[in-house]
Each structure stands twice: as C-alpha cells, then as structure tokens.
Amino acid sequence: MPTRRSVFFVSDRTGITVEMLGNSLLTQFDGIEFKRVTMPFIDSIDKAREAKLQISAAFAESGKRPIVFTSQVDEAVRAEMTKVDGLVLDLFERFIVPLEEELGVASAHAIGRSHSAGNFKDYNHRIEAVNYTLAHDDGVTNRNLDQADIILVGVSRSGKTPTCLYMALQFGVKTANYPLIPEDLEAMKLPPALVPLKSKVWGLSIAPDRLHQIRTERKPDSKYASLENCKYEVDAAEKLMTQSGIPFLNSTAKSIEELATHILHEAQLVRRVY
Amino acid sequence: MPTRRSVFFVSDRTGITVEMLGNSLLTQFDGIEFKRVTMPFIDSIDKAREAKLQISAAFAESGKRPIVFTSQVDEAVRAEMTKVDGLVLDLFERFIVPLEEELGVASAHAIGRSHSAGNFKDYNHRIEAVNYTLAHDDGVTNRNLDQADIILVGVSRSGKTPTCLYMALQFGVKTANYPLIPEDLEAMKLPPALVPLKSKVWGLSIAPDRLHQIRTERKPDSKYASLENCKYEVDAAEKLMTQSGIPFLNSTAKSIEELATHILHEAQLVRRVY
Questions:
Q1: Is A168 found in the same domain as A238?
Q2: Which of B14, B23, B131 is closest, CB to CB, to A114?
Q3: Helix/strand/coil for A243
Q4: Are residues A129 and A157 in the same domain?
Q5: Are A234 and A173 in a shared domain?
Q6: In-domain check, residue A110
Q7: A91-100, B44-53, B129-138, B217-226: which has the minimum mean pLDDT?
Q8: Is the predicted ipTM greater than 0.90, yes or no?
Q9: Does residue A106 contact residue A142 with C-beta atoms inside 8 Å?
Q10: Are A257 and A135 in a shared domain?
Q11: Any chain B CB within 8 A of the CB of A266?
Q12: Would you say residue A124 lies in a domain?
C-alpha cells in the first residue's frame, strides 16, 4: 500500500499558481499517494486560522505532517500560515525578497494582481481568440480562415479542439481546426482551402490504439472506431502531412499544455495574454 | 519613462509553471516595464548554453541584469543555468530539497512528469468536459442538461463561454451556459428548462458600460449595444437572478481564472483534472 500524505494549496487568490507549482513538484515523488485540498481566497487572519484548523485535523487523523504550498502577500496572514502544523512552503516569501533586492524597489504587497481582469486589452485578445476558435472549430467555415494564427489538422478525435481552445484561452492566439476526412486521405490531398495558408498549418497525430479507444467510447462497434480503420487513417494522415511539408506532433504522449506550448514556440508566435 | 528589465522564463518543459509563478511575482513591482521571453524545452547542456548566450546579450544591450525564472530537474543543466549572468530563481531547487527531507524519499529527478498525458483518466475527463461544454454553449440544446455540473446564465456577452471553457479544460467540469434573453427578462422568469436544475445554476453579471463597450465592438450603433439597453438588461438580469435565488458574480472586475475558481469553490465541486 502506498504511503498517503495530505497536501494543501492555500492562497489569498485563486490558488492556481500554487496548485501548478505544487503539483509539478509532487510528480517527482513516486510511491506516495497525495490527498489534495485547495483553499482559495484565504485573505484574512480569520480565514487563515480556519485553514490552520483544517490542516491540523488532517495531521491528527493521519499522523503525518501535511504539506502546505502557500502564497500569501499579506504579512500578517503569512505569519499566521507559518504557524501551521506542517511543512509550509511559501512561494511569495521565497522569491519576493531576492526580487526586491535585485530591482531596488519594494514590492506592492497587494493582493489580486495576477490573472487580473484589469487589463482590458488582454481580456479582449482572449475573448476574440476564443470566439474565433469556436467559429472555426472542425472546419465549419472557411470564412476569414486567413486570419487564423494557426490552423490545426488531423483525423477526427486526434485532440484538435481542446488544443485549439487552450491556445485561444491561455495565449490569446486565434486558431482554426480542420479535420482530415476519409476523402482527403483517399485523394492524398490537403483540403483545398488550406493550400494557400500552408505556412500556418500544423498537424496532430495519435497512436492508432489510443484513437481506437477514444472513438470506441463515442461510437462502439463502428467501422469509424475499428482498430483497422484507425490504423489506416493515422497512417494515411501522417503520409499526407509529411508529403505536404506540414509539421505534426503526436498527441498520445503529450498533454494539451505541451502540444499548445510546442506549437506556439515552434511557430514563433507571440502570446497576447499574460 | 519606466525602468525596463528583461525577464526570462527557462524551463526543461513547457515553461507554463515558471511563467505563472514569475508573472504573479512580477505584478508586485510597479513602475518597471518587464520584457518577457519564454524559453521552453531547455533540457540539455547545449540548449542551456544557448539560453545563457541570449540572456547575456540582453544584459549587454540593456546594461541591467536580467531576471531568470527557471525550473530544471536535471542537475547538470541546472548547474549550467546558475552560471547565467542574471538573478536566477530556480523553483525546483528551492522546493524539492525540503520536500525530499519531509517525505523521506529521494525525488525522481525526471523531466516531463507534470501536465502529463500519461494519465488517461484525467485526459478523458478533460475531453468529455470540453465536448459537453461545446455542445451546451449558448443554450443550443437542453438535451442531457441534467448532466451538467454547472449551468451558467447571464446576458449576452457577459463572459459565460470563456468561463465555461476554462472550467472544462482546467478542472474537467461539465458546464452548460444559457443566455438570459430579452423575453426572459420581460417575463422575469428563468428559462423553463433551468427551473428543475436551479441548484446547479450560477450567474454572471457585468458593468453596463463594459457590456456596452464589448457589444459595440461586435455590433456598432445597434440597439443591442446601446448603453441604455445594456443598463436595462443588466439591471433586469440581476433582479431576475436575485429573485430566483441564483448566486451571481460580476465579470467586470474578475478574470476568467478567478470566476472559474470562485464557482468551483463555492459550488463545492471537485476538480477532475490535475
């Protein structure tokens, strides 16, 4: 049986940053089952005390010191959190002090400055990119296709839609996606609308057995989902992309974050949202 | 003129975590204009040396030490990065050592474990949630509406779609969204399909002048976009939500991340994706 350990993500804001950092650190430890609790918006001493009680209860129940990832801008709240019965790792404290020294200015010590909606330009880029991406999902229209920053192609269920949405939401990049359908594969030709835009086209591929598994959940026992057909489609799509000079990534071994970042980076796009 | 400072995010993987942490720290410093460069997939000594050159060039050009947020699992690559001419803040080093001591095990020191696609269950939750959310955008169908974890309502352009997509992608939560249209507002009644599902319904509101601004970009000089109509719709929608006992958040002052996290937290939903 694996060891279990409670992990708390305590933040004065959404907790998204501490969760990301904490989770990426925890992936480095094998054989331990982490029980995660996120506590967002802990921005007062009273709330910090409540959080402390809950963390102490987890300690009492398990007999093991919980791990607490926290980010506290307010000094009094942070002081309260450091009294918690657990290993407390405070992002803010460990980094803000060397930054203050380097920059030669005091930090604002103000809560709620990240993920800020205050930046109307950022927000507009994001919304515009999401709207564009929704309107250009699954090849529904060729209208304004030339305005896309990236056009993603691949067989049905290769992961195009979530990758495009991620790029739109997180980077503010306009993406379109276009399925490679059996007719394209038979003709060994890109959909004609994409030919003049080839420099923006990227591909996704996928392992045939994974595709078979995904399609089976959607349409069990269909030709569409059969392993044989998945093998044929993947093989033909990869040939078509290679022959057309379209770079492609394999979505089997990569997360949506990784696919999106690879494409942004390789295509040398500049993100419009921070 | 504000001071300028170069900031580099250098990671052996996507760089998403270092960017998030770094950006949330930088928001604490006013009056400095940060010039950001992300360098993902720096996972060899050669690549680290290239990165080092680029960072040194930025130093030479500006005369100011760049700030380098980095996360390096490999010790040799990390050692190379610490030689960089800048303030180097390494996430991995600062946190992994205390964690090793606390957990009593050595870390795996393996790259590419976060945002992993390896977890097929996580991936499926994500895709399922995204598909559900796309199929239930803007009230297009009531089919399987009871399977939603959250149903978001609000006037047109109040931010429902991006918030729903964020929840689906990041938390694996199934969301539907439903516009409050002039007919609903006139009748002062929720769309009938939502009445039996009221416990899952959350609202978004927005400042009328912001709504006016957003709608004007879409349909200039229309009644739909007029400030007067925006005031009427927002006011009526807030009355309707209050009267129906539907909790609502204001999207004007909150980012998509904040809206999504608030709702997840307040509705006591458990995220299905880490």
A1: yes
A2: B23
A3: helix
A4: yes
A5: yes
A6: no
A7: A91-100
A8: no
A9: no
A10: yes
A11: no
A12: yes
* DSSP structural state of residue A196: G
Checking if the pLDDT of B1 tops 90, the result is: no
- Whether residue B171 sits in one domain with residue B68: no
Query: Are B73 and A28 an interchain contact pair (Cβ–Cβ within 8 Å)?
Result: yes
Residues 220-239 of B with CB under 8 A from A: none
* Domain containing residue B189: 120-266
Question: What's the confidence (pLDDT) of residue B218?
Answer: 86
pLDDT of A124 above 90 = no
Distances (CA, A) of B159 to B218, B225, B252: 14, 15, 9
- For position B46, what pLDDT does the model report? 96
- The residue from A69, A103, A137 where one domain ends is A103
The residue from B55, B75, B103 where one domain ends is B103
Sign of CA dihedral A45, A46, A48, A49: positive
Same domain, B35 and B147: no
A109, part of any domain: no
Pairwise CA distance, residues B27 & B132, whole Å:
35
Identify whether residues B97 and B194 lie together within a single domain: no
Tell me if chain A has a CB within 8 Å of the CB of B255. yes
CB pair distance less than 8 Å for B117 and A91 = no
Residues 119-138 of B with CB under 8 A from A: 123-124, 126-127, 130-131, 134, 137
Question: pLDDT tens, B55-111?
Answer: 999 999 999 999 999 988 888 999 999 999 999 998 888 888 788 888 887 777 665
| One domain, residues A255 and A161 | yes
What is the pLDDT averaged over residues B156-181?
A: 94
Helix (H) or strand (E) holding A73: none
Q: Does a structural domain hold residue A251?
A: yes
Interface subset of A 50-109, CB within 8 angstroms of B: 65, 67, 71, 73, 87, 89, 91-92, 94-96, 98-99, 102-103, 105, 107-109
* B116–A27 CB contact, under 8 Å: yes
Give the pLDDT confidence of B191-249 residue by residue, as tens digits: 999 999 999 999 999 999 999 999 998 899 999 999 999 999 999 999 999 999 999 99
A chain contacts of residue B27, beta-carbon cutoff 8 Å: 113-114, 116
Number of domains chain B contains: 2
**Do the Cβ atoms of A31 and B105 come within 8 Å?**
yes
Measure in Å the smallest separation between the Cα of A241 and chain B Cα atoms.
Answer: 23
Reading the block at residue B168, the tokens are: 């689906």
Residues B42 and B40: their CA atoms lie apart, in Å, by 6
Question: pLDDT tens digits, residue range B129-151?
Answer: 999 999 999 998 999 999 999 99
Give me the CATH number covering residue B125: 3.40.50
With CA atoms as reference, the chain B residue closest to A11 would be B261
> In this complex, which of A15, A21, A159 lies closest to B261 when CB atoms are compared?
A15
